[in-house]
Each structure stands twice: as C-alpha cells, then as structure tokens.
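User: Please fill in residues for this 157-position structure.
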C-alpha cells in the first residue's frame, strides 16, 4: 500500500472550491429558486411538480420517458410524482395502444386551471430577476449554459 497523499489547498492540484463550476451552478440555482419557492408553496406544489406541470402544459401528450428527460427527474421519482399528481386530479396518464409500457401524460382541466393561475406570478418573478440582472444577461447566460450542455453531451468529445 502506498502512503496517503497530502493534498492541501495550497498545492494547486484543485481549483478553489468557490471557483468550481458545479458549486457555482448549485449556489446560483438555490438563489434563483428561493425567489420561486414561496409562490410554489402557496399553491401546494414542489419545485419538481411545477416543473412537470409546466413541461406537460407546453407539450401535451408527452410520454413519461421524454418527460423524465425534459424535467431532469429520474424515472422512479417521476413515476411516484405522476401518481400523486393524478390522484390530485392535475394530470392524466394513458397507456399507448401497442406499447403498454409507454404512458402519455396530459393535464386535466384542473391542472390547466392551476397552470393558468400560477403562470402570471411565475412570469412576474422572472421579470424581477431580469430587472435586477438584465434581460440580455439572462438570455446570454441561458445560451451559454445550453452551449456548455451541448458541448459536454456531444458524442464527439
């Protein structure tokens, strides 16, 4: 067995914690989501549930696998969430004829009404963030993050 290595912050082997991309992304996410959480709580939803409702509203008839990918929610967690949202009469799930493993998800009238109720306040929160940081800066940041995601997800890397 070799001897343990002594890595200290002064060795330069690892960037400073505060400069690590994953930490910067997590901290920013937490600050941004802190703006939205009271609105979600007022409406009895978790962040993930709102993400699902938004995704299904914008793409009715999405299947569960695509919804899992779109919302960045692992399938076992999504399955439990879909069951709860269906129980709350916010969405419906239908099996696909010929492929009983696939489920198509759509909002119910109640789910659409909840979305319509929540959307204006959600947009107002976005507008506040844009006013503080800058609309152009938000657009540029989202573009850069999408470019990073596509670059790191490229099969040619």
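Assistant: Residues filled in for all 157 positions:
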């Amino acid at each position: 067995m070799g001897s343990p290595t002594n890595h200290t912050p002064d060795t330069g082997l690892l960037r400073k914690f505060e400069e690590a991309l994953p930490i910067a992304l997590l901290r920013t996410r937490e600050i941004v989501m802190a703006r939205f959480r009271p609105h979600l709580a007022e409406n009895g939803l978790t962040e993930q549930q709102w993400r699902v409702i938004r995704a299904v509203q914008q793409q009715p008839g999405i299947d569960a696998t695509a919804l899992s990918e779109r919302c960045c929610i692992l399938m076992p967690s999504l399955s439990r969430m879909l069951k709860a949202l269906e129980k709350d009469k916010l969405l419906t799930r239908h099996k696909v004829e010929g492929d009983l493993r696939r489920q198509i998800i759509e909002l119910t009238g109640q789910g659409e009404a909840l979305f319509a109720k929540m959307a204006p306040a959600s947009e107002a929160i976005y507008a506040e963030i844009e006013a503080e940081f800058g609309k152009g800066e938000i657009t540029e940041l989202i573009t850069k993050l999408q470019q990073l995601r596509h670059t790191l997800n490229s099969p040619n890397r």
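For context: Strands lie at 62-63, 91-96, 99-107.
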